[in-house]
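User: Write out your own:

AI:
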Amino acid sequence: MKRKDKGRKIYRTKEKNYYGKSPLEKFMSGLLTVLLIGGIGFLGYSAAEPLLKFTKHMGDEPDVIPIEATTADSESTTQEVSENTTESEFETTAVTETSTEPPVTMESYRAFVLMASDLESTETLQTALDAIPKNQDIEYVEVPLKTAGGSVYYVSTVASKPEMKEFQKLNLVIISETIRNSGYEPTALISTFNDNILPSVDIETGYVYSDGTLWYDSALKAWTNPFSQNTVSYLADITEEISGTGFDRIVCTDFVFPKFTNRDLSVLDERLSRSDRCMALTSAANLLYDTSVSNGASMFIEVSAADILGGSAEILQPMLLSVNTIVLNINTDELGDGVSDGRNYYEFKGTPAEKVEKCLGFVSESLSDFNVAVRISGSSLTTQELISVKEKIAEMGYNSFVFG
C-alpha cells in the first residue's frame, strides 16, 4: 500500500514586541518566555523523534531480502541468469523471513466444505453436517453443486441431459434447508470452465479445431471454452438456478484455461494466443456475478495458490472484475515440496502451518486489491492441523477461513 505524501507543513509565527513594561511585568514576561522555550523544545523533540525513526527505517537496508518472483529486480536477475543456464534449471526462490501487508479487511466468512459424495442422500448430508468441527465459529457450509469435471450434484432443470444426471439425487431446497436446520448458512460451489461433460453434449462449448473436431488435453479430456457463448449461457443458467433457490453465497472456481502446448495454440482459435485472453474469463465472471446479485446472493471467486505461483491465475484482474472477494485455496497436496512456474521454483517444507505462511508471503502481492478468505485444503490434513493453520493465518491478519 502506497503512502500518500501530504508534504511538509510549514508553521509561521508572528513576532510581537512589548514596550514600557513594569519590573513585575518584565519578570513575568521573562518567566513566560522560559516556559515557552521549554515547551517548544519539548514539542520539537516529540515531533522530531518519530520523523527520525521513520527516516532511518526507510533508509536502512534489511537484514534479509526475500527473492520475489513478482518484483522487477528479480525478473531482471532471473532473465540474466537464465541466459547462461539450460531450460531445465530454475532460480530457487526461498523465503527465510516473510513480511506481508495485512489483507484488505472483509466481513468475516468462516466456512467448511463438504464432499460431493455427501449429497448422495439427506442421511449422508446430515451425517456430514454433524461431523463439522465444533467450537471453530464456522457459520457457512460450502456444498459442491457443480464439480471440477462437470458433474452436477443436485436435481437440475438446466443440466437435464442424460449424461449429466448421474449424480443428481437431492434438490436445492432440501439441501439448503437441511444445512440451515443444522445451524449453518449454505454456500454453493460451482466449477466453471473445468468441465469435461458439457462438450460431449454440445461440441460448440468446447475447444474446436478448424475442421470441426473437438480438442482434448493430454489426459483425453475436453474443456469448456470461455469464448463460447453456449458455455457462458449454460453457466449463467446454472448460477441463476442455484442463487434463486436458497443460496445467498456463491463461490465460483476454475476460471482457467487448460495447459495448451505450443502446437495446440498454433491450430486452435488465435484468440487463445493473445495476451488479452483473460478478458474472456473476467467477462464470464462478471456475468455470473450480476446473475447472483440480481437474486440477492453475493459471489466470490476461488483461486488456487498453485495457479498463482505457476502463473496461470489469469482471472486476477482487479480493474476488470466486478467481484472483489477472492477465496485463496491453499491445497497442501498441490504445493507438495514445491511449485515451479517454469523459471522460478517455490519451495515448501515443514508443517502445514509453515507451508501456508510461506505461501501467503509469496502470493499476497497478487491479491492486494481484493478481499481475501483463505481456504485450507489437502487430503492428508488432520483437524488439529487445520486448526493450527487457522491460528497462524489469524496472526497474519486473515479473519476469514474455509476448512476442507
About this structure: The radius of gyration is 28 Å. The longest strand covers residues 140-146.
